[in-house]
Amino acid sequence: MSPLKIKIELNEISIKRFDNFSGRPTIIFLHDSLGCIELWKDFPEKLGALTNCNVLVYDRQGYGKSCPFSYPKRDKYYLELEADILNELLVHWNIDNAILFGHSDGGSIAIIMAGKYPKKIKAIITEGAHIFVEDITVHGIKEAIREYQTSDLKSKLQKYHGNKTEEMFWAWAGNWTTEEFRDWNIENFLPLINCPSLIIQGEEDEFGTLNQVTKIASQTIGKSLQFIIPNIRHTPHKEATELTLEKVKEFISLLNL
């Protein structure tokens, strides 16, 4: 996709923004592979208030209230493309002091963004981010496919994504379970990350092992903190909201912003 195409789509991206603290950083929330603004609930506003930071949440192309996908099929580089789009969006939104908070796919985008465009990022926070594909990842996605086909998961997602739901779901599930995607790996971006990072993961995450956390934390240049939460799965900000808020508040308070 050309940069010109990306720029044309910027005004079709749905956002929710709270600029309550002049001169303070903006926390940008990057949703997961089935997520959107509404599924974050009030977590972004709570974190903004706790940290005295501005907040911006957005629906990536193909999700929530943003425009449908403009490309018919994803490849192994689609998350890097999302980081390139985010770079364009930061210019569009006039934000140059961003803290990225990414969940799952959003965490992977945060990692790529911090490695590829380091001057724009103050820090990153990831939840359940992936840097490579594991057996547990494929198994978890196949379980999600089974739920999508046999339960009310599809109708639940349609409440948020409307008629984009089918294309959105299979863009993720269909891509990640192919043999072609099995060797996807973004570890090459890690040594380029010089900002602080907080790497969060539930100990019982059904989509990734703790090897993801240790590999991320050990390869970045900037100081990296790990936060593993016992008895929690893939969505710490939902499953352990208060604990996650407190840990992220503590992390941001150490940044001397």
Automatic annotation (TrEMBL):
The entry's keywords: Hydrolase
A single MF term (Gene Ontology): hydrolase activity
Protein name: Alpha/beta fold hydrolase
Organism: Flavobacterium chuncheonense
PANTHER family, alphabetized: VALACYCLOVIR HYDROLASE
Keyword Signal: no
Transmembrane regions listed in the UniProt entry: none
Lineage of source species: Bacteria, Pseudomonadati, Bacteroidota, Flavobacteriia, Flavobacteriales
Start and end residues of each AB hydrolase-1 domain: 25-129
